[in-house]
Specification:
By secondary structure, this protein is of the alpha+beta class. The protein folds into four domains: about 200 residues, Heat Shock Protein 90 (2-Layer Sandwich); about 140 residues, 2-Layer Sandwich (Ribosomal Protein S5, domain 2), CATH 3.30.230; about 100 residues, Rossmann fold (3-Layer(aba) Sandwich), CATH 3.40.50.11260; about 110 residues, Four Helix Bundle (Hemerythrin (Met), subunit A) (Up-down Bundle). Helices cover about 35% and strands about 20% of the residues. The protein is built from 18 helices and 22 strands. The strands form five sheets. Strands 1-6-5-4-7-3-2-8-9 form a nine-stranded mixed sheet, with helices on one face. A five-stranded mixed sheet has the order 10-11-14-12-13, sandwiched between helices. A three-stranded parallel sheet has the order 18-17-19. Strand 10 and strand 11 form a beta hairpin. Helix 7 packs parallel to helix 9, helix 8 packs antiparallel against helix 9 and helix 8 crosses helix 12. The longest helix is centred in the middle third of the chain and has 24 residues. The protein is elongated and about 120 Å long. Bound molecules: adenosine-5'-diphosphate and magnesium ion.
Length: about 625
Amino acid sequence: MATGKINVAVENIFPLIKKFLYSDHEIFLRELVSNATDATLKLKHLTNIGEANVEYGNPQIEIKVDKDKRTLHVIDQGLGMTAEEVNKYINEVAFSGAEEFINQYKDSAKDSGIIGHFGLGFYSAFMVSEKVEIITKSHKDEPAAHWTCDGSPEYTLVEHDKAERGTEIILHIDSESDEFLEEARIRELLTKYNKFMPIPIKFGSREETHDEGEGDDKKEVKVTVDNIINNPTPAWTKKPNELKDQDYTSFYRELYPMQFEEPLFHIHLNVDYPFALTGILYFPKLNNDLNIQKDRIQLYQNQVFVTDNVEGIVPEFLTMLRGVIDSPDIPLNVSRSYLQADGAVKKISNYITKKVADKLQSIFKNERENLEQKWNDIKVVIEYGMLSEEKFYDKAKKFNIFPTTDGTYLTLDELKEQTKEAQTDKDGKLIQLYAANVEEQHAYIQAAKDKGYTVLLLDSPIVGHLLQKLEQEDDKLGFVRVDADHIDKLITKDEPQLSKLSDEQKETLKPLIEDVVPKEQYTVQLEAMDSEAAPFMITQPEFMRRMKEMQQTGGGGMFGGGFPDMYQLVVNVNHPLVSQILETKTKKKQERLIKQSLDLARLSQSLLKGEELTAFIKRSFEMIK
Ligand code: ADP
Ligand code: MG
């Protein structure tokens, strides 16, 4: 029997390993299954190139729990190790790797989510074990070896009579780690980390029913089959031309079993130079809800789950997507801030952005109707991308479409073309009108349509920021919400309406109205408009309203505090009712006319509520009875 002392500088590395990364103890299982997978794939390679003289067969990895003996077993049929190799790879290489890892990350580990994901390898087994055994038989014609280590730097290495090729790792679970003797917990971990690993992983068995025999002899029989935890060939490892739409949808189901909504679009990522990256991203149905969802993009390395926090790897606007990214080129045992500064990671992030833009561009070009149908569910992602990534903005300008209140969709260029005739104002500026709610702003939309104007329907919570950006880029382009002013002022033309009231009459009228209307909320503005237009109308200046909305969704606010809700009361002096107010002799009747008109204007802006609404209704009944 051989015994030895592992040669390390850190005198007792095990207590350190145990203490380390407390919350990440569970990763030991992923590390061991990864090693078993590596060993199997290495054997496959050796048999392929004719350097191993054994049958590769259909190897699998098995995980077993023996609760009574308090052991957990990871068994593979991979290439195995000779005693000499155990010495080299376990006692020297793995150990010094673990030591280096600990020295390097002792201090920074706590505040970096990603550290602890990779690097400890085999020795992470000691985070949960009081003793670890390796029984391994190499594919080479040599006796099996049995290595035991109880958590001190001393180990033993003896011969073993194991006959079949491969390695069995036996963990003697320590008293603080009972959870890892629970079948349910192990199943949970295997599903989390190893669901898509390339070698079949067996954990227990299950019953299946099969039909046996023919015709009258046909009967159902129950058979016990291996319970395989993983799908060794997930969709992203295949080529896009091997997959149909349906395969992408079923893979989405596999990834997110609790998601019942279908994804809207998928994007298959596949690149091997200058970095290797594969994956599938999905646009989920998002609506206007900006809440952080819990089903997120998952990051893998060679089919091993690493994390579902892809911050820093994927541009922020795309973290709203779902799916999988698999790349061996993302450095993982580093901090987030390092990750963001890393050149390779930046390239990956740019590549993903470009792929997403290209895919949307191609949907726009080839199946525009499909894009239009789903626009409402993806527009927030696109708008966010246009605002946060300049490169995406440049591409997205071509496929970003604006829905109109008529149910059509127009790109900015198409929109300009359609509206330039009717909506260019006297200064040569092209004004685009929009509404945020077809129901609430109905009267204003109608007034604009009567003039032959196009009204967009823009209701995303961040669209204000995008309009701001588009205006900054083109000073001959402006966006104004339909209720920002009265129609003749939204787009000012050269031919002003003539006023039916004289200047003196107006000077008498204005204070009459101001006396009745609450001053802190409304400024009164007399306008000569079409006599068909409403007599009283409430508007909210574009600038104020947009700044306020932009402030609510972050950024854009140049003023610290909140904005008060200020409205304009536009009074159409050409309307007969306004003349009537002016001519009414009794003060009381005059006041009542003004009050009633104001309330009607408020009603059409959904501003009349509660007690005031009740009083209005009561007053209206009085008037018609
Ligand atoms: P890494 O996997 O990054 O090389 P580990 O600490 O996980 O580091 O493992 C150290 C080495 O031990 C491996 O490189 C491999 O040579 C050997 N090894 C570990 N597990 C097995 C196994 N199940 N079969 C064969 N060799 C193994
Ligand atoms: Mg390893």
